[in-house]
Amino acid sequence: MRKLGVVHSKYFTCFSIDIRGAGETDKSPGPYSTDMLADDIAGFMQVLGIEKAHIAGISLGAATALKFAVKYPDKVKSLSIHSGWSKTDIFIKILVNGWMEIAKFKGSVVDTVISFIFPLCLSPELFVKNPDYIKSLSDFVKSRPEQPTEAFVSQCLAVLSHDCELQLSNIKAPTLLTFGGIDLITSIGRFGNHMKNSIKNSELVVFEGCAHTPMYEKTEDFNKKTLYFLKRHIG
Asked: What is the pLDDT of residues 31-61, one digit of tens each?
């Protein structure tokens, strides 16, 4: 979420958290779950003395944010779920099981992300029209602290077990749901409208022509719309 935070930090105090097993956070033994990751966020807030916050996440971060909101509804000022899902379905399971096997075989999480996950996170048009930008994103991934395969697998297991389907009604905070119009991983038809109907006081924004990570494809529009939502619920 660092790309989002640069603009939003002009108006809010922002924390971009490396979830358990990634970046500069400890690579503790797995398996992980979104329950565990949500508890980590709650612990982070407690240490900093933050009673309530605007919570945002993309992909696994979005699943974690959803789980946080259903477990700790009173700690959420607003909720921004980008390319999220309420319960892992068979399609996500097929993808993630494949990524785990590839990472184990290659022995490199970075190569797996760039060669096998990027093509589903970004639109084909972006690859063709702006290869230099794709390279810059790849270079960013390479610049991050190396993730052990075991930690990647543990995060994948959190994806596979994620389920807060029956708890969506627990969410009290104003909620923004965003999706890429051509996202295959978390498509609108499978998750967007269902979550919109299940979460009170929620709104749905679709970024047409984008895949799983609209913030990297339509950055200006993404920042404008997400910031507009946050400013309306500044609390």
From this structure: 999 999 999 999 999 999 999 999 999 999 9
Specify the CATH architecture of the domain 2-232. 3-Layer(aba) Sandwich (3.40)
Query: 3-class DSSP state for residue 207?
Result: strand
Q: Which residues pair with 206 in a beta bridge?
A: 179
207 alpha-carbon distance from chain centroid: 16
> What's residue 1's pLDDT?
44
- List Cβ neighbours of 185 (8 Å cut-off, separation of 6 or more): 59, 83, 92, 95, 120, 121, 211, 212
**How far is Cα 177 from Cα 200, in angstroms, rounded to an integer?**
12
Number of H helices, E strands in the chain: 11, 4
* 53 Cβ contact partners less than 8 Å away, ≥ 6 residues apart: 45, 75, 76, 77
Distance between CA 114 and CA 108 in Å, rounded? Answer: 10
Band (pLDDT 50/70/90 cuts) for residue 26 is: confident
- Cα within 13 Å of Cα(174), Cβ side: 13
CA distance 66 to 208: 23
- What backbone phi and psi angles, to 5 degrees, belong to 6? -60, -45
